[in-house]
Amino acid sequence: MDISVIISTYNRSAKLLKTLDSLSSMDVSDSIEWEILVINNNSTDDTDRVMKAYMRGNSPNLKYFVEEKQGKSFALNTGIRNAAGNIFAFIDDDVAVDKKWMTGITKGVNTYRD
């Protein structure tokens, strides 16, 4: 696995869906292996229901976790523990990424490695 995108969320299910849609619509080379990890930080809204429904019809590279300890650091640590990627990319739950975002990360890392 090349890249793990880690998203911590709390009570922002509608915005989170927009973030996931933007990630799903990226132009990503088949040579890049990547995953998305969403960590629900004990939300009290419909995040759990929304995520389970979203996962039924979408990417197999999407993983979902619930972290009951409140606090972003707990949620992010849950993501890190469960990530399979060599690179971690952290984004907020209200971000829409550019279609070339993943390509940019890969180019940046490869430039640094060279």
Verbal overview:
This protein is α/β, with parallel strands linked by helices. The protein is built from 4 helices and 4 strands. The chain starts with a strand and ends with a helix. The mean pLDDT is 92.
What secondary-structure arrangement, pairings included, does this model have?
Blueprint: E1 3-9, H1 13-24, E2 34-40, H2 47-56, E3 62-66, H3 72-82, E4 87-91, H4 101-113
Parallel strand pairs: 1-2, 1-4, 2-3
Largest sheet: 4 strands, parallel
Radius of gyration: 14 Å
Give the mean pLDDT. 92
Neighbour order of strands in the largest sheet: 3-2-1-4
- Assembly type of the shown chains? single chain
Our measurement of the CA-to-CA distance between the termini, rounded to an integer number of angstroms, reads 20 Å
Q: Topology as H/E string?
A: EHEHEHEH
Number of strands: 4
Q: What is the molecular shape?
A: globular
Number of helices: 4
Short note summarizing the structure:
The protein is an alpha/beta fold.
List keywords for this structure.
globular; alpha/beta; single chain; 114 residues
